[in-house]
Structures are given as structure tokens and as C-alpha cells.
Model the fold of this input.
Amino acid sequence: MLRATKDIWENRHALRSQFYVNIKTTVATTRLGLLWWILDPLLLMLIYYFVVKVIFDRGGPNYHLFALCGIVTWQSFSRSITLCTSSLTSNAGLIKQALVPMVLYVIISPLVQAFFYLIGLMIIMVWNWPVLGFQTIGVFILVFLMVLMSFAIGLFLSIFEVYIRDTGKLLSYILRFGFYISPILYSPDRIYEIASIPDYAKTLYSLNPMVHFITAVRDLLFFGRMFDYLPIVITFGVTLCIMQIGLVFFRRVSPYVPKMI
Done:
């Protein structure tokens, strides 16, 4: 991990350049530019609000904001993971020509998505400004954790995509499944309160880090209270362990990547 940190720091100018390029490229791919990244989660929120609140008469007070917290968070995570997966194959030309550590190509996507994630969180903050307080600073802790989680998983998936080109396609189905087993449109308490769900299934559900992550976001920006630090600390610890394993795996396999891509 120290070696990766050193590589990123020594190549911070290249990282900064790629960050700006990716931001401009991402914004330029839509007619509305940066405005689309504001409208996209809002439109999804309207769709799910109509289905859940209007048709099924579910949800609760301010369900639109409740759902928006989950949608913005999941979008950032899923996009980051998806882009990390193709980070090496999509930069094949640069990898063969530029003498920069390949780990930079993996970390850039989580950083770019963190920028757009902050935009989404700011929408929620402006909309629900009465609950803001000193605890709102905790948002930056969660954004940092999001970057680490995406980077840790991306270290593996980026290599898998080089050797198994259908990794990205399979990932789309996994992320779709993850959308429904994460508390994006509902509270995790609903799962724990259903008697027909066996205890082992509830335990497996609680191991999903997005359960605690989305709950923490809602605690800060929807309820206006500090999140429970214990699940977040545990998620940090597990993420760092996975990242260390991923860096060792990435370092051993990456020398063969230029020939494979």
C-alpha cells in the first residue's frame, strides 16, 4: 500500500491531468453537459417515487429525498466500479506508450466519480438544508470511503477484464442484483423485521457494505444526525485489507497486461 501511495504521489501531475481530462470528456459526452449529472438522479428519483409512493402507496414522509440519497450513492458506486473494470483495456494505447504506473488508470475513475458524487450530495443538502449541521462534515469521510471501496474492487476487476473480456458484461448483472439487495428504495429495517426471512439471510444481508454506507448517508443528509461509526470503521478496515491484497495481485499480474491488451 505504501508503494502504491508513493507511485501515485510521484505521478500526481499525470493524475491531475487525467482527472481534468476525464471530467471534461465525461461532461462533453452529453448535450446538457454538467447539468445532466444533476438531472439524471432527479429523474430517477421521480420514476421510483411514482412507482413506490403513488402506485404502491409505500414509503414515508419526504420519500423523494429518502430515495434520492440511495440513488445518488448507488449511481456513484456502480459507475465507478464499471469504469474501473475497463480502465486498463480502454487505455491500452497510453499503457503501451506512457511510462506511468498502471495503478493510476484504476484510481482515476473513483476520483472522477467522487467529484460527481459530491454534486449529487450537494443537491440533497440544498434540498434538505434544515437538517444540516456540524455532523454534515462526515460526508467527506463517506466520499473518501467510496473512493477506497471502488479502487479496491477495481484492482481485481480491471485485471479480470484484460484476461476475460466479458467481465464487464457479467458485472452489469451483478450490479443490477446489488441494486435490489441494497437499501436504495427502502429502509434496511424492513428486511430485518420480516419474520419469513431466515436469520442467516439477514446476516448475509448485513454483510453488504452498501447497507451501512447508504444508511450513513441518510443519517447525515436525511435525518440530520451523525451516522453509527462502528459499521463504517469496520468497512474501512475490510476495504483496506482487500485493497492490500488487490495491490499485491495487481503488482504481480500487471507486467503481463501490455501484451494482453
About this structure: The chain is about 75% helix and 0% strand. The longest helix spans residues 138-163. Residues 2-253 form one domain. The CA atoms of residues 180 and 186 lie 9 Å apart.
